[in-house]
Design a protein that fits this description.
Layout: H1 3-11, H2 16-25, H3 31-40, H4 70-75, H5 79-90, H6 95-193, E1 224-230, E2 236-242, H7 247-257, E3 266-271, E4 274-276, E5 294-301
Parallel strand pairs: 1-5
Antiparallel strand pairs: 1-2, 3-4, 3-5
Length: about 300
């Protein structure tokens, strides 16, 4: 192992075990090679352990040619250059040469550190690009999920409207059948009582007498409710709701659409007959509260009702 290179590394502040290992594992190719190795392996956990030469790695038992060392035979380098290098290494360095060599090595260390910082900076920039790319991909995925959810809600709403339409049609058909059955029932009774006395074409039409046994008129059922809400500033909101919707839906609609700059809690009430709706009423459907088919509600601040 080159004593001069080892001493130079130790003078530069490297531990002896670390310096010996760097020189040995780089084949004693000089301080620069050892410095490169140290910079690359500075995080190795066994870096400061003593160097143990490998055993049983003899490549050949032949003697090297005269004037050449095994290292020169293996590397194929010029023996004269090797001899000059060995001679220079054996020659002790002056203080000026040591300072100059130390200066070069410190510059080399600074350059290696700068290169490493630049490499780490490039890697950090690349990681940031990858993070942003992944964030954009996740944003696109979330956007697609939201679009799919909106499509699903729109499809469910379409099915609900279709079911409501079919239900209305069934109600109308039932009403028509009931009318036809009543007309047939009362028409046949009046015609049988007038037979034998007066021909049908000469008898005057007589109104059907009302009797307690006659069925009451069918009460019309409404499935929608038109609500007008008067706000505190005198303006009003008008919206159509389903008759089975809760009063809480009306209150939510007012909270979302009022423009009177009011953010205080409020009551909903009717003027005639006067009725202030409570929190319990908010869970009841509009048809149960008597607000179908239309009603006018008034917004009042809590405490003023």
């Amino acid at each position: 192992m080159e004593a001069t290179a080892l001493e130079s590394l130790i003078e530069m502040g490297f531990p002896q075990n670390r310096a010996e290992k760097a020189l040995a594992l780089t084949g004693n190719q000089g301080i620069e090679s050892a410095m490169d190795w140290l910079m690359e392996h500075e995080n190795d956990p066994d870096l400061d352990e003593p160097y143990v030469p490998p055993q049983g790695h003899v490549l050949s038992t032949e003697e090297p040619p005269e004037g050449r060392t095994p290292e020169s035979v293996q590397s194929g380098s010029d023996p004269t250059l090797e001899e000059l290098t060995e001679e220079d290494n054996r020659r002790p360095l002056s203080e000026e040469e040591k300072r100059e060599q130390t200066k070069r090595m410190m510059e080399l260390i600074t350059q290696k550190q700068r290169e490493r910082e630049e490499r780490e900076k490039r890697e950090s920039i690349e990681r940031e690009k990858q993070r942003r790319k992944q964030g954009q991909e996740l944003s696109l995925i979330r956007q697609k999920l939201q679009e799919d959810e909106m499509k699903k809600l729109a499809e469910e709403r379409r099915k609900e409207k279709l079911e409501e339409k079919l239900a209305k049609q069934r109600v109308r058909e039932k009403i028509e059948r009931d009318k036809a059955e009543r007309a047939k029932k009362f028409g046949s009774g009046s015609s049988s009582s007038s037979q034998g006395s007066t021909p049908p074409e000469q008898s005057a039409p007589t109104p059907v007498p009302s009797s307690p046994s006659q069925e009451p008129p069918v009460k019309r059922e409404y499935d929608q409710c038109r609500i007008q809400v008067r706000l505190l500033d005198g303006t009003s909101l008008t919206q159509t709701f389903r008759a089975k919707e809760q009063l809480a839906a009306v209150r939510l609609y007012v909270e979302l659409n009022r423009k009177d700059n009011g953010d205080e809690p409020f009551h909903l009430l009717t003027s005639f007959p006067r009725r202030v709706f409570t929190e319990e009423d908010m869970e009841k459907p509009l048809q149960e509260l008597g607000l179908v088919p239309s009603a006018v509600l008034i917004v009042a601040k809590k405490g003023n009702s």
